[in-house]
Each structure stands twice: as C-alpha cells, then as structure tokens.
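Hi all, long-time lurker, first post. I run a small reading group and we've been trying to get comfortable going from sequence to structure in the token notation. Rather than ask abstract questions, I figured I'd post a concrete chain and ask someone more experienced to write out its structure so we can walk through it together at our next meeting. Sequence below, copied exactly:
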Amino acid sequence: APKEEEVTDANRGAEIVAADYAMSRIGLPAITLWKLLSATDPNFVFYDDNQTMIGVVRTGKNPTMRHLERSHGICIAWMHEVFQEGYVGLAYEVTAKMAANIHTKAFKDGISWAHACQLINIFPPEQLNT
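-- Answer (accepted) --
Happy to help. Here is the structure in token form:
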C-alpha cells in the first residue's frame, strides 16, 4: 500500500518536523563530512524563529504534541540529545532575518517582499549596477 502523506498543524508541529528533517538528513551528515574534510569540528548553529520549538528541543519535553513520534517518527528526546551533546548549537533568530521565509510565508506589502528577496540575493536589474 502507498504511504499516506503526513500532515502537521502548521502552527504547532511543523517547525519541529522541519527541524528534525534538517538535522537528521542534512545537518548531522554534513557535520561528519566537514570533520573529514577540514580535520576540525565545525561550528554549526541551527537558527529558528519559533521560540516554542526552541524551548521543546532545549528541554526535551513536549506534552502538548505527544503525537509527533507516532505520526511523524519525530523523537524529541533524540533532538534534545543532539543539541545537548554539542554537535549543533541552537539559537533564536528574528523572523525578518529568516531567508527561507520567502518560500513559506505570505507577504502583505512590497517592502517586506523586497527585504525577503534581498535575504536570498534577488535584486531588480536596476539595482545590480549600483
């Protein structure tokens, strides 16, 4: 039978699901590679604009979203351990500085949109020669 798509309430668990995916499939494998290539420990920091998610990972406790392990295979204790062992730092970043938001958020005005574009180095042609 085909695997059913996993759906998460965007206001509650999506940040944790995304963080788990980023750490398990990209972050930790990249750290291993960087250690091999540079012979030093990389300074890898995971930035997020969701203070609830940061708190859950720092404490290792998430009583309001106990379903994440069953529905998404997310183990909060594993995420907590990864950050506690010092493989990766965890830091808060204001939403306005999150470059990935251009792909996930709606923008209500042109100024916010222009700022988001600048975060990922997209500029109108007339600004390129200045």
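A couple of things your group might point at:
The chain has a mean pLDDT of 85.
The chain has six helices and two strands.
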